[in-house]
Specification:
single chain; alpha/beta; Rossmann fold; UDP-galactose 4-epimerase, domain 1; 2 domains; seven-stranded parallel sheet; two-stranded parallel sheet; 13 strands; about 35% helix; about 15% strand; globular; binds uridine-5'-diphosphate
Length: about 325
Amino acid sequence: MKVLITGVAGFLGSHLCDRFLAGGHEVVGMDNFLTGSPGNFAHLLGDPRFHFIEHDVTNFVYIDGELGGVLHFASPASPVNRLEKPIQTLKVGSLGTHRTLGLARAKGARYLLASTSEVYGNPQVHPQSEGYHGNVDPVGPRGVYEEARRFAEAMTMAYHRYHNLDTRIARIFNTYGSRMRPDDGRVVSSFIVQALRGEPITIYGDGSQTRSFTYIDDLVEGIYRLFFSDRVEPTNIGNPGEFTICELAELVIAKVGATPVIHQPLPEDDPQFRRPDISVAREVLGWEPRVALDAGLDRTIEYFRGIIGESAFPLSPVA
Ligand code: UDP
């Protein structure tokens, strides 16, 4: 099958592209490099089954020939990027979703939307199952991402119901692993890079807030299975292991070495808890994560050790 993956230069999009190629498929990758990097797919450039198109998906998308699938992964996703690019974040979630849905309809292709646990906002139900409708402040600073993804889900279901399009919606929880940018402000990359550079680890608030971290290989496998399943309704893809941010800092320090910890103000609307209920993914996809945080952190630390060791790598200050 030939599939289009938008956001192919990003952390998730590039790994997903590798998975589809490994599965014997052909991939057209699209990106405008707003936050992604060409280095993330440089290893694929000689592969005849991989084609790259530089394009902003908020504009009309044209693909020559047949297409069996469209997977919409383009969006600024890290907290720093979302706050720096709020309008692009809203546009790629709304206009970009509309364009890619229209393309899928024109090609008769299956569509998969990369949605997010952020649709649950600061949840009042714990853990979060797909039936929970969320607690989102539309005008808060995080609202640009949360509402964009909520709109994208609504638009995807509208195309499913009105145009009978074959659709899938993945609600992706916090994910980590190789190809994260060292300066993107996400907690796992930030803590590892800070510890490797011997800088203070920045805990926002008192660090009692929780997150559930999914290793990239597990995430990609869950998405791949969802795409080839019959499940139309939104599906949580995440690791139910839940850790406080203080526990994460302790784990990183235990692995990388002692470094001071400082506390900084908690960002507005920062969710206090987050943990997926993955009963649906277990039952419908036969999927559950295999890589525990301990092992996933070891691999991710090795990755960052490698890129920080390359003197030419541009390290900008961590948030
Ligand atoms: N966080 C932190 N220090 C950092 C970066 C993030 O304490 O240097 C916290 C952040 O406030 C949040 C959690 O870690 O409570 C996860 O943050 P991230 O931005 O990775 O993901 P999200 O909040 O979108 O789940």
